[in-house]
Every structure is written in structure tokens, then in C-alpha cells.
Amino acid sequence: MLTRRQRKKFHVLEIIQNSKIPVGASHVRNELAKLGIEISEATAGRLLIELDEEGLTRRDGYKGRVLTKFGFRELKHLEMQHDRMEYGEEFFKILDGKTEKELIDVLIARRAIEREMARLAAQNLTPEIEQEMKEIIELQQQDAEKYNTSQYDILFHKLIARAADNKVLETMLLMIRQDVQLASALEFIRKQVNSSIVVDHKKIMEAIISRKPDAAEEAMTDHIENLIRDVNNFWMNKHKL
Fold first, then answer.
1. Which of 12, 45, 56, 234 is least surrounded by Cβ atoms within 10 Å, i.e. has the fewest?
2. What 8-state DSSP symbol labels residue 185?
3. What is the pTM of this model?
4. Contact of 231 with 100, CB cutoff 8 Å
């Protein structure tokens, strides 16, 4: 759940991002007022200074503030936390509504498709997708401990599908992964059993960018089997409670 300060930070960063021009304290105060948050212009100015000090915003001359790369990333994280707060109850209802067999059936289907995708990705990888993979893994490693990183899981597997360049397999995978809550549910489970998904992803990426199809297929198979193991362990511990 976001603290009062985090909520205020979230709204200020969002205001700056949504503005087409650099913003100052007066604009921040006025936009916050529209959200029912009443503060003085001086307080808005102090908030901006704090964001500058945290490296989340920077001055654009005398025009006002703009987001830095870190500010944009922090906003995305706060958005996720805000969404979790808003929809957290629904998320846990969804997880509770899934059976162990349903999750494992999905993972078994993914194993059959994605190990072949990983092999094809190692054969067909382009420099552009390779760079995107490296960036996704770097972000996931940085945020693994602090934030929900299921969005990186989705992006990473989509990159593998793009690299594989097989529309039939990609369509099949999209059908299997059409449950948008699945990635979050699996990440929640892995965190409950103290398992790290980024380790698996890094091994898959290294095999793919090394253009080693056999190693890529093996790494993907290991990844899915680790997920199956985590689901089994989670349900075992759940029944012990």
C-alpha cells in the first residue's frame, strides 16, 4: 500500500509526465487541487526540490521540471503499486480461484511451445532484439527485490517470440497466456517460495545471444520446470497453513 508521501509523489510525477512542457510549482499545485489534494505553492515547490534531490526530476533552465530516466522508472513502479492497492483484493481472489492443476496445465503447454521458441530465437536473433533483451534483464535484475516485475516477464517472453519469428507458435503462446493475471500470480507464488525468476531469464538470454539453440532450449525447459516446482511447493505449503 502506498504511504501518503508516496501517493503525493506518484501524483506529482504523473503531472510532470502528462505535461507537454516543463512544469513549475504553480502548475503542480493547481493539478493536485483537481485531484482533491490542497497544498500551497510553497509546499509544491519543496516537493519539486525533493524530487530533484532524489534524481527523479531535473530543471530545464527556468522553464520548470521534467522527469529524468529514474523518475520515469519510479513513476512506473508507483503506478504498479497504486494498481495493486486498487485491485489487490481482486488479484488475491483470482489467485484463490485457480487450482494447482490449472496453473500446471498452462505451464506444461508453455513448456512444449516455448522451448522450441527459445531454440528458434537462438537461430534467428536480430541485433535489435538482442539489445532489448539485455535492457529488460538489466531492469528486472535492478528491481527484482523491491518491485513486482511480472511486466518484465511478459516482455521478455514476448521478445523471445519475436526473435523466434514463427507466427504459428506465437499465436499458440498468446492463446495460452491470454489470462493477463497469470504472470502476476506466478510471480507471487515464486516470491512466496523464495525463488527468483530473473536467474532463469538470464540463463535463457545468455544461451540465445550466444546463438546456442540446444542450450537455449534446455534453459527454457529448466525455467518452466522450475515454475512447475514452485507451484507444487506453494500449494504444499498452503495446505499446511
1. 45
2. H
3. 0.59
4. yes
pLDDT tens by residue, 137-146 = 988 888 765 5
* DSSP at 23: B
Q: Which residues contact 143 (CB under 8 A, 6 or more apart)?
A: 77, 149, 152
CB 224 within 8 A of CB 110: yes
User: Higher-confidence residue: 131 or 94?
Assistant: 131
Which tens digits make up the pLDDT trace of 160-194? 999 999 999 988 888 887 665 676 677 777 777 77
User: Please, where are the H alpha helices in 54-166?
Assistant: 69-97, 100-124, 127-143, 150-164
Who contacts 207 (Cβ-Cβ below 8 Å, separation ≥6)? 118, 122, 215, 216, 218, 219
Domain 98-240 has CATH 1.20.120.530: yes
Cβ-Cβ contacts under 8 Å for 175 (sequence gap 6 or more): none
4-77: which CATH architecture?
A: Orthogonal Bundle (1.10)
In angstroms, the CA 43 to CA 127 distance is: 47
Report the alpha-carbon distance of residue 5 to residue 148 in Å, rounded. 20
Domain spans in the chain, listed from the N-terminal domain onward:
4-77, 98-240
| Residue 143 · residue 81 · CB < 8 Å | no
d(Cα 166, Cα 21) in Å, to the nearest integer?
42
Share of residues in the chain with pLDDT > 90 (%): 51
Distance of CA 116 to the CA centre of its chain: 24
Mean pLDDT of the chain: 85
**In sequence order, what are the beta bridge partners of 67?**
57
